[in-house]
Amino acid sequence: MREKKIHYKDINVFITCSLCNGYLIDAATIPECLHTFCKTCIAAYLENDEEDNTRCPKCDSVIDHVNPWRVLVFDRTLQSIAYKLVPHLYKEEIERQIAYYKERDLSYPPSLVEKLQEKRDEEEQQIIPANSDLHIYDDQVAICIDTKTKDLQSLPRKFIICSSNATVTHLKKLLAKMIFQDPCQYRKIDIYLDEQILGKDHTMRFISLTKWRHKMPPICLTYGIASD
């Protein structure tokens, strides 16, 4: 089975604000139609008395006749995906906010203080002692994996805790070492989720956020002899 490549241009529409045509910042979603915009963009739209600001600017769905602000929902999941897909977007946004408040000699709002603390925490985690496990500070993912057919033996332990940055190829090499006693034989193995072969470069984080979204851990996978 050939792997399908996904290009940025195919997903840009999902992480772009139609009001400013830029990547989403502080994504705010209208529950009635699920269209999402930058928080500042939709705020400017709702506060513009010259526009009919009780309707979605994209599809014209009615938002709220009395208080449109009340129904907006901050979409943390979509914003997190945008930050992960677009390199440096998160860092550049924090720098823009810092410059804005410094130029006006204003104190930082709680939301920016929280972002700065998260950034400091991430930087501290990246300071890895010499001769240590490079993945010790990664987020961990729980996996349950078992054989799909009788052609391959089951593992003595089906539950695995691994780095969220581990890829399907890493998992295949582990299986090859345990089953064939040779990690170089990993191409003989395919790994499945819900009967679908997983791409070799998919990370456990990607699988958790997309294919296992809204499901409780562990991620349940199966493996079998690779198809030609």
UniProtKB/TrEMBL annotation:
It comes from Rotaria sordida. It is found in: Nucleus. The keyword Zinc-finger applies. Its main location: nucleus. Coiled coil: none annotated. One of its GO terms (cellular component) is PcG protein complex. GO terms for molecular function: zinc ion binding. It comes from the Eukaryota. Keywords: Metal-binding, Nucleus, Zinc, Zinc-finger. Residues 17-60 form the RING-type domain. Pfam families: RAWUL, zf-C3HC4. The keyword Metal-binding applies. SMART domains: RING (SM00184). This is RING-type domain-containing protein.
